[in-house]
């Protein structure tokens, strides 16, 4: 969704007219109209105000996606290590912890490769 469409949609969801939104963020009504039609884009300060009033994320509005794969990879390693250590404790073989951590790492890399 383009930024203008997002502004229009969120404004309508909030039940705000262009005039009311313009008053809240201290710009002219015509400015809101130009943003909604993608003729112009808001400056940084106006975008921050829009995000607060219309309750949206600036990152998502700008199309910025944060990668979270690294966290999943870390949890696979930690999970594998914990499971392996638990099994190692039960079976009195602590090398299982390291083997499961390596397996978790390998699975993480495979999942990351298939995602791309």
TrEMBL record:
Top-level taxon of the source organism: Bacteria
CDD domains: HTH_XRE (cd00093)
Transmembrane portions of the chain: 96-114
One Pfam family linked to the record: HTH_3
Keywords from the UniProt entry: DNA-binding, Membrane, Transmembrane, Transmembrane helix
Molecular-function GO terms, alphabetical: DNA binding
Domain HTH cro/C1-type, chain residue ranges per copy: 7-61
SMART domains assigned: HTH_XRE (SM00530)
Matches recorded under PANTHER family: HTH-TYPE TRANSCRIPTIONAL REGULATOR XRE, TRACRIPTIONAL REGULATORY PROTEIN-RELATED-RELATED
Protein name: Helix-turn-helix transcriptional regulator
């Amino acid at each position: 969704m383009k930024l203008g469409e997002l502004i229009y949609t969120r404004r309508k969801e909030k039940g705000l007219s262009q005039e009311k939104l313009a008053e809240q963020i201290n710009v002219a009504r015509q400015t809101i109209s130009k943003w909604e039609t993608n003729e112009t884009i808001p400056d940084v300060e106006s975008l921050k105000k829009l995000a607060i009033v219309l309750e949206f994320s600036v990152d998502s509005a700008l199309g910025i996606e944060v990668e979270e794969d690294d966290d999943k990879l870390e949890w696979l390693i930690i999970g594998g290590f914990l499971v392996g250590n638990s099994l190692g404790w039960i079976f009195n073989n602590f090398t299982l912890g390291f083997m499961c951590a390596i397996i978790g790492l390998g699975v993480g890399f495979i999942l990351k490769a298939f995602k791309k």
